[in-house]
Amino acid sequence: MSLSRRSFLKSAAAGTLPVMMTAAASTPDTPRHDAVIDNATLRWLDGAAPAISTGTTLGVPWPRGQHRATQAFALTTADGKPVAMQSWPLAWWPDGSLKWTAHALPANAGLASGLRLAAVDKPPATTDTLKLEQRADAIVVDTGVIRCTIPKRGEAVIQSISRNGRDIARNGRLVAIAANTPDTEAANTAQHQYSSTITAVTVEQTGPVRCVIKVDGKHSTTARQWLPFSLRLYLYADAESVRIMHTFVFDGDEQQDFIRGLGVRFDVPLSGALYDRHVRFAGEHPGLWAEAVQGLTGLRRDPGAAFREAQVAGLPCPPLAQMATRVSSALHLVPAWGDYTLSQLSADGFQIRKRTKPGHGWIDADAGKRAAGSGYIGGSGGGVAFGLRDFWQRHPTRLDIRNAQTDSAEVTLWMWSPDAPAMDLRFYHDGMGMETHEQELQGLDITYEDYEKGYGTPNGVARSSEITLWALAATPSRERMVQIAAAVQTPPQLVASPAHLLASGVFGRLWSLPDRSTPAKTAIEDELDRRFDFYKGQVEQRHWYGFWNYGDIMHTYDADRHVWRYDVGGYAWDNSELSPDLWLWYSFLRSGRADIFRLAEAMVRHTSEVDIYHSGRFAGLGSRHNVQHWGCSAKQLRISAAVYRRFYYFLTADERIGDIMRELLDADAKLEATDPVRKIANAPPKGQYPARASFGTDWGSLAGNWLTEWERGGNQRYRDKLLTGMRDIAAMPHGFFNADRAGYEQDSGHLHNMTGDKVAASHLNSVFGAVEVFAELIDITGQQDFEKAWIQYCTLFNADKAAQIRALGMPHGGSTVLRVGHSRLTAYAAARTKDAALARRAWGEFFEHPLKPLRPIAVNGPAVLNPIQEVDWISTNDTAQWGLAAIQNLALIGDYLPEAK
């Protein structure tokens, strides 16, 4: 049932007395921030301190002018004990002061609450626990616990990981299996196996606490090189582990190249008795499958309690002479199990199998629902624990251990399991006769799919995966193995408090801390929580999982079928449409909730890789929403924009996301060849200009890319292009109303008025990060003409036609379908101009349409496949824009929020 503003507020504030609608005495203004912040209290994102940390890195913001570029920092515990740390700048304010700093802690450091990061006169002394040695043929990193050798050429990406002078793992390499058809039984099937070939090795960072080494290459056979990859190896002081960020780009022909397996493989030297060799697989947390290669339990004859107890615990057994003779004399007749596989082919089922050796049958060992994606193999000299993050979420996956009965086992972590059907990336339909733009637009009209032949290609999309390897001196206890698996699935992350993030003034000053000081504010805060909780639940109920899908959400609901429109053209996967990414990140900034961070993290990993092209014809562009993530022919800047990535980058200092944002810097060069308005009949002709650009979906996206590069201290050419565009828009007769579609010169960044004295506006221009980026630009540049033009646009977009005519000479003609989302533009103008009437108008717009409070209902039985919670009117467009409007209006004009009468 739809509710009015009044009934919505009353229902949310049940039990309270009605309050007359009044405005606070103060005038609206931008949020206040602390003037001085010399320190930051850090906390573990997921609450309590983790049991294990393999080393962690975080980003911390600072107010403009607070800290000079060379400022030193120190970290202490709540009781004042120093914690080792490595620091470096991530971003600067235009005056050269620090905007973001990154800080790395050693393994298992700071496992307490209340860590305090403070500016100091000079950096504290550090012990160089971490050492890096450059050799002619390899790089050697010593963490103080393990030594990792990375070759500079050849097949192996890791030559060895050793501990106490003994190799624990060797010959780490990438493997891929591909076929020319998805059908394994086809007569003409040809299958090939590929291994890694290194093309470059780069030391990206080295210091006393953390080093990062990047390995680039391709998957190769003697006949072919393809599937380019990048590996980042992260090593922290005092760590017994190596974290690996694995990225590959699909650069094949989807009609002929079908990946059947993609993984990382390494060898594990083994020694000692077979009954002292142990295998571990983590099940559903905190479950564990733990066995020995040669079992001593359950035999007809008892080897002795000491042997059984030691083997079950993973400890070395007593000397063989102490074993019961009837068992020791017949050990050669007890099978040794050499091969093990844990296969997760769906989000809801895994299976463990084992066999003695090749040529013999597999035995079903056990099964479960969701494996944590970690395992172990080792003997008396130690072994390797290994884990693949998001293991069940990104099915089909697999963990293999082979030859555990020999002196060298082989481990493979499969990111795409060979058990699964082939990775089939072909477009899902044959075009259905659409050959002209007219026919394509007819298809768009019926299914909302923007189809164009040849545009739905996966060539250039990517996927990144996180792997961690532990070089252990002995078999971990069962409890320790469970802790290792937890650290793989949910890597410990330090964060600054929401209050610190807010006071630093980053991300546009468009958000505030949650405020339930009045019934009306409580109603909005509660609705914000409900909407996030609903989507979080939908990920699980709708099984939004899988290698290519995990991290995205769906676009629009189909109430008749009780499903999201997963198979209806442009209504399926959302691909950042109308900025759900921003809704999630601003929700996290203000709340600090771990579950919001983790969903936003999965989204940024997905949208940054799968929804963006990283090579080929469309490199730097993203794909609009579709049944397949890359299926839409609208290849646009509005999807690939850095505005969706930079939150995660600055909060974590993640190098892969940093790479992706730099990939986007020259994406404007694609505007000419991939014209975003090529199918729109009434779009102004390009005329003398190389390309056409909308100020919001195109230039606004570029502005976010260039702003991020500017603050990261990169090439100043992009700062200049950004400032050029700002000046050009401000100089147009009607500012942004002339820039709805402007002529664009990608070399210089100049924008040109192509509408003359006419005006135009699009409901899409402000909903892909433009609001948020422009707020930051106005804050940091002080360009008053640009601000004036933007405030004019914000004031008039939702204004009545009479006001538009008075200001512009004519109505702007923009659609009114997103008036609630655009209420935050009105709020911004009100806050900047201190206009109380405008602030009240903004809240009127926010509540203008009957507000539907989100109240899921249960649906089960034969109407659905699985029991679900349903909101039959839901769309991600409306959810994201309502959420952003609610957050920003509360921050900008919260004092003017009316109460129910």
Automatic annotation (TrEMBL):
Residues 1-25 form the signal peptide. Residues 131-485 form the PcRGLX/YetA-like central beta-sandwich domain. Pfam families: PcRGLX_1st, PcRGLX_2nd, PcRGLX_3rd. Keywords: Signal. Residues 39-118 form the PcRGLX/YetA-like N-terminal RIFT barrel domain. InterPro entries: PcRGLX/YetA-like, PcRGLX/YetA_2nd, PcRGLX/YetA_3rd, PcRGLX_1st, TAT_signal. PROSITE patterns: TAT. Residues 491-897 form the PcRGLX/YetA-like C-terminal alpha/alpha toroid domain. This is Tat pathway signal sequence domain protein. The lineage of its organism: Bacteria, Pseudomonadati, Pseudomonadota, Betaproteobacteria, Burkholderiales.
